[in-house]
Amino acid sequence: MNMRTLKAAVAAFFISSGVAQAAEPAAPVNFNELAKQCASGVHYNTMQAVARTESGFNPYAIGVVGGAIKQPTTFSEAVEAARQLDKAGRNFSMGLSQINRYNLAKYGLDYESVFDPCLNLKVGAEILSECFGRASGNDQEALQKALSCYYSGNFRTGFTQDLAGQPSYVQRVIAAAGKNHDNQVIKQAEAKPAVEAKPVIPELDPNTPAPVQVKVTAKPNKPKPKKPAQVVVAAASETKEKAPWDAFGDW
């Protein structure tokens, strides 16, 4: 499977949330190719052995401490089961790498994103890498101790038998590594429903009335200043009335 095919298959797995539409059949995803892309810090064969032991390559697997449930086969079933277990106060782990509920917040996951195969493998690899970095011994000794730490949080419990006559966790992972092969695929009963992204800003409705009513107050008209009246002074010769005895207009 080339990288373009892989990315297309992974995109078919999980698309960011929105309005659900009809689900489409999921394309098979090669485990090693996905591990190379999403968990590059750990050798893909090591991650394959861990996933084989932890989940049997079921991305919706849920393991309950001190109990068991019917294993989900769809994304919606897995999310609902995880939420119900959370409400019941149970301790449980989820997904391909079986990420424990108490590690979700630390690694930025929730009860939906933990079932994303790529994110789940990424976090699983980060946890194993942290354990490996603290383990002593040569590479193989440190790796076995890291597997114990991955399983139990310490470097001892993973080497002990959970049940009499049963192999330890580390022994089970080592045995699982002997079954690794390049064509291993992730079990996938259905893809997460295809979705349509929700727009942040809605479509404008031209029929919606304005939510803010603005009152417009007309300004009073100011009276224009009147021009001063023009005073016309007539010439004295035109306005002065002659006396009857002033024959020559001298007075």
From TrEMBL:
The keyword Metal-binding does not apply. Residues 35-163 form the Transglycosylase SLT domain. Residues 1-22 form the signal peptide. It comes from the Bacteria. Keywords: Signal. This is Type IV secretion system lytic transglycosylase VirB1. It comes from Oligella urethralis.
